[in-house]
Write a structure and sequence with these properties.
The structure holds 2 protein chains of 2 kinds. By secondary structure, chain A is mostly helical. In chain A, 76% of the residues lie in helices and 0% in strands. In chain A, helix 2 packs across helix 12 (254-278), helix 5 crosses helix 7 and helix 9 (192-221) packs antiparallel against helix 12 (254-278). Chain B has 17 helices and no strands. Mean pLDDT of chain B is 80; it is low at 1-18. Classes of the chains: A mainly alpha, B mainly alpha.
């Protein structure tokens, strides 16, 4: 990122110094501003309607500000329980993915295993497969194994669905940790587990946090998986509850829908900002960001 | 063993040398247990929840598995009946055409818009980049359900778009009914552009400035520099990004489900929505699974190309 920025700055000087390009630069700003406005317009509705005392489907400055919509939806049935369910399943999946990725990536990075390459390519292949398409067979499997409507099983499935990308990312992180320390420890008689636990894990912690937060962001936004695998209302996570709220009142209680959407969106935005900071602006995790 | 080592040497494998490998390998830590135990949990999850369902897909698509009724109790092997039905089914054909249109529209839109944004944002001040970037990425980070809501609100008869068009005297209409496919394509482009913008920005930053400068000195116009110098250098970034966007777009369900739920009629029913309707609304798991398998095969092919391209890149 720093290199990119530096390049940008010298570029800007070049543009200014070249006569006749000032008009071009102005035009660029106009186009950029227009595009930014187009991207912003649909989002404005959510922000404005959530605090508007007379909300409609139109994005417009609120006639008078109110927090009524937020207080109206703050009930255990509408917000607290679904958000709690979301936290349990998504955080559970994040912890499981990070932990399993670390354990699986360590031998893949450190040992010279014969199946290493085929396995890594299979993992990469799996990151490209559409989760949507395997939901029907997963549903059939869950019905037969009597796992339907189980928060634990859903959490495990969410973890499994992000695991390929987690393993891939973690393996790259471990590759970046010098092996010399571990070798010294092995000479002193440490086991592989000890060297993983005391040498690699502390150095890997930021990487694992990235894997975990990435899992949180993707699973928090995932609607289809809990929509299919969880059936009873009290187990619904926020993604599904906000949708049923839309189905029930969407065409009348715009303000509350907007408020709920905003409440449900803000945590991912915050988490995303944390990760993109941590990754130093290189959006390496874009690779497997799927809906 | 010698062959494995030499094959490893073809690729860049980080800071480790062959010697270190040998030492790691040589440690007495016995057999398969040293990798099987740590990889166990991940392997279990992947086999149980990933590979298992995919294999089950292949089997179930050859049966008449159903959610309710007599077929649910007694699932029979029906051979290729589901696939024959699939090919003969006009709804499947319609859904395939809609999926292709959706895919082409989204991939084209995201690529052009993402590349335009990346190009325009180069050489701009940090504040402009940060602001525009944050807005575009904001659309990307918003959960799919919420993206569906905001676009529903934007395109509805009472929505913002009609309010804006009203200034020019246009008749208000519910765009979700009059142009459902266009509506979901626009919404998906809106949501997905950030991804291509970010990859193209990263790719553009690797294009050396002196190459462009040399072309300019030789009298090339800005457009010629872009077309003959920059874009050819971006080829690989373009290819991987196109593949990844395709893989993401082919499975879009939630956005369409929230905005139009496949309607009106079936005019925005893409394959994932048809799959959902058949398998879970109608309860015909076998037939729904056949659709799922068709999707998996197409996505699988794209994914193979993706892996192949990355492995080639790694070997360079």
């Amino acid at each position: 990122m720093s290199g990119e920025r530096r390049g940008g700055r010298t570029g800007a000087r070049m543009v200014v110094s070249a006569p006749g390009r000032v008009a071009g630069a102005f035009l660029t700003y106009v186009v950029l501003g227009g595009l930014a406005l187009v991207f912003l317009l649909p989002l404005l509705w959510m922000v404005f309607a959530s605090v508007d005392s007379e909300p409609s489907l139109r994005a417009g400055l609120p006639t008078s500000l109110t927090l009524d919509h937020f207080t109206a939806i703050m009930t255990p049935e509408i917000v607290y329980r679904p958000i709690w369910n979301s936290i349990v399943t998504c955080a559970g999946a994040a912890v499981i993915t990070a932990f399993c990725s670390m354990l699986a990536a360590y031998p893949l990075s450190r040992y010279n295993l014969r199946f290493r390459k085929p396995f890594l390519y299979s993992v990469l292949f799996a990151t490209g497969l559409p989760i949507t398409a395997i939901m029907v067979p997963v549903y059939g499997m869950f019905v037969q194994a009597d796992l339907l409507n189980s928060l634990t099983a859903t959490t495990l499935f969410l973890a499994a669905s992000t695991l390929p990308f987690g393993i891939w990312l973690t393996k790259n992180f471990i590759d970046g940790i010098p092996i010399a320390l571990e070798e010294a420890a092995w000479v002193d008689g440490a086991s592989a587990w000890q060297s993983l636990r005391y040498l690699v894990a502390p150095l890997l912690a930021p990487g694992l946090a990235v894997v975990g937060i990435f899992t949180l962001v993707t699973t928090w936004g995932n609607f289809f998986v809990p929509f299919i695998l969880l059936t009873s209302p009290e187990k619904m996570p926020a993604a599904v509850r906000v949708f049923t709220f839309f189905g029930q009142y969407g065409s009348v209680r715009y303000g509350e829908l907007a408020a709920y959407s905003l409440l449900y969106t803000l945590p991912v935005v915050a988490l995303y900002m944390v990760v993109s900071r941590a990754m130093g602006g290189r959006f390496a995790l874009g690779g497997a960001m799927k809906g | 063993m010698a062959t494995t080592t030499s094959r490893d040497d073809e690729t860049d494998r980080g800071p480790r040398t062959r010697n270190e490998h040998a030492r790691a390998r040589g440690r007495a830590w016995g057999g398969a247990a040293r990798w099987l135990i740590p990889m166990g949990p991940a392997l279990f999850l992947l086999l149980a929840f990933f590979a298992g369902p995919i294999l089950w897909t292949v089997w179930a698509s050859l049966t008449n598995a159903a959610l309710t009724g007599a077929q649910a109790a007694q699932t029979e092997f029906v051979g290729t009946a589901n696939f024959e039905r699939l090919i003969a089914d006009t709804r499947f054909l319609d859904a395939t055409i809609l999926t292709v249109l959706f895919l082409v529209g989204c991939v084209f839109g995201q690529t052009v818009l993402g590349l335009t944004l990346a190009l325009l944002m180069r050489n701009r001040s940090g504040a402009v980049r940060a602001t525009v970037g944050a807005i575009v990425v904001g659309a990307w980070v918003v959960p799919e359900v919420v993206a569906g809501f905001v676009w529903y609100a934007f395109l509805e008869r009472e929505g913002t778009l009609n309010a804006l068009l009203g200034f020019f005297g246009a008749e208000p209409q519910n765009w979700l009914f009059t142009a459902p496919l266009l509506a979901v394509v626009l919404a998906n482009i809106w949501k997905g552009t950030a991804f291509s913008m970010m990859t193209y920005s990263a790719g553009l930053s690797e294009v050396p400035d002196d190459l462009k400068e040399a072309a300019r000195v030789d009298g090339a116009s800005s457009f010629q520099v872009l077309w003959f110098v920059v874009l050819p250098l971006l080829r690989r970034t373009l290819a991987t990004t196109l593949l990844l966007i395709t893989l993401q777009t082919v499975q879009v369900f939630t956005l369409i489900f929230v905005m139009t739920s496949g309607g009106p009629g079936s005019s925005s029913t893409t394959l994932p929505l048809l799959m959902y309707q058949e398998a879970l609304r109608m309860g015909d798991l076998g037939y729904g699974t056949a659709i799922a398998l068709a999707l998996l095969v197409v996505a699988g092919l794209f994914s193979v190309v993706y892996v192949w391209m990355l492995s080639k890149e790694e070997q360079r």
